[in-house]
Amino acid sequence: MASASITFKTVLLSTILAAVLVNSYRFEVGDEKGWIKPTGKDPQTYNQWAAKNRFHIGDTVYFKYRNDSVLEVNSADYLNCNTSNPMSKFEDGNTVFQFDRSGFFYFISGQSDHCKVGQKIIIRVMHPSEVESPGPAPSPGGAGGGWDSDNWEPPGINSTTKLYALSYFTTVVTGLFIVLYLFM
Ligand SMILES: *[C@@H]1O[C@H](CO)[C@@H](O)[C@H](O)[C@H]1NC(C)=O
Ligand SMILES: *[C@@H]1O[C@H](CO)[C@@H](O)[C@H](O)[C@H]1NC(C)=O
C-alpha cells in the first residue's frame, strides 16, 4: 500500500516538474478556421497571423485540416510550392509540430494548387538571446538565400505575450498547489 502511494507521488511529482520546466505554448495555425485553402482575396493570411505571434524554441504549432496535408519544406520549395521533396510530411488531420531550434520554418499545403493561392506559412522562431529582452525584433537579415522579404513583417508585442506570461503563471501556481497537497 505504502509503496503504491510513493510510486503515485513520484509519478505526480515528475509530471509537475516536467510541466513547470517545459513551459511551452501551443499556437493554432489559422485560429478557429484551421489550415485551409484561403478563400479571401488576401493571399498573406497565414503570414499575417504568424507575424502577430512570437514563437520560442519548444513551442508547438497545431494544424487542423481535412483532405489536405502539411509539408515542412526548404525556402526554395516554399517559394515555388514544390511538394516533391518535403523535409517532413503530415496528413493525419491533427498535426502538432514542435520547434526544436530557432530560425525559419516553412510549411506548405501538400496540394500545390492550395499552396499557390496562399496556403503556406513562414514561422520564425526567436533565438534565446532575443527572448531575454523583448523589444523591437531585429530584421531577419542573413537568413539564408531565397528569402522573400515581402513576405515578412516583424512581430509586434501583443496579447500573445500576455497569454504566454499567464500560461507560465498558471503552471507555476498549479504546481505549487499540488506540491503543497502532497506534503501536507
Ligand atoms: C474529403 O474527401 C472525401 C472523399 O473525397 C469527401 O467525401 C469529403 O466530403 C471531403 N471532405 C471535405 C471536408 O472536403
Ligand atoms: C521540385 O524540386 C525537385 C527536387 O529539388 C526538382 O527536381 C523539381 O524540378 C522541382 N519542381 C519544380 C516545379 O520546381
UniProtKB/TrEMBL annotation:
<protein>
    <recommendedName>
        <fullName>Phytocyanin domain-containing protein</fullName>
    </recommendedName>
</protein>
<keyword id="KW-0472">Membrane</keyword>
<feature type="domain" description="Phytocyanin">
    <location>
        <begin position="25"/>
        <end position="127"/>
    </location>
</feature>
<keyword id="KW-0325">Glycoprotein</keyword>
<dbReference type="GO" id="GO:0098552">
    <property type="term" value="C:side of membrane"/>
</dbReference>
<feature type="transmembrane region" description="Helical">
    <location>
        <begin position="163"/>
        <end position="183"/>
    </location>
</feature>
<dbReference type="GO" id="GO:0005886">
    <property type="term" value="C:plasma membrane"/>
</dbReference>
<dbReference type="InterPro" id="IPR003245">
    <property type="entry name" value="Phytocyanin_dom"/>
</dbReference>
<dbReference type="Pfam" id="PF02298">
    <property type="entry name" value="Cu_bind_like"/>
</dbReference>
<keyword id="KW-0336">GPI-anchor</keyword>
<feature type="region of interest" description="Disordered">
    <location>
        <begin position="131"/>
        <end position="151"/>
    </location>
</feature>
<keyword id="KW-1015">Disulfide bond</keyword>
<keyword id="KW-1003">Cell membrane</keyword>
<dbReference type="GO" id="GO:0009055">
    <property type="term" value="F:electron transfer activity"/>
</dbReference>
<keyword id="KW-0812">Transmembrane</keyword>
<dbReference type="InterPro" id="IPR008972">
    <property type="entry name" value="Cupredoxin"/>
</dbReference>
<dbReference type="InterPro" id="IPR039391">
    <property type="entry name" value="Phytocyanin-like"/>
</dbReference>
<dbReference type="InterPro" id="IPR041846">
    <property type="entry name" value="ENL_dom"/>
</dbReference>
<keyword id="KW-1133">Transmembrane helix</keyword>
<comment type="similarity">
    <text>Belongs to the early nodulin-like (ENODL) family.</text>
</comment>
<keyword id="KW-0449">Lipoprotein</keyword>
<keyword id="KW-0732">Signal</keyword>
<feature type="signal peptide">
    <location>
        <begin position="1"/>
        <end position="24"/>
    </location>
</feature>
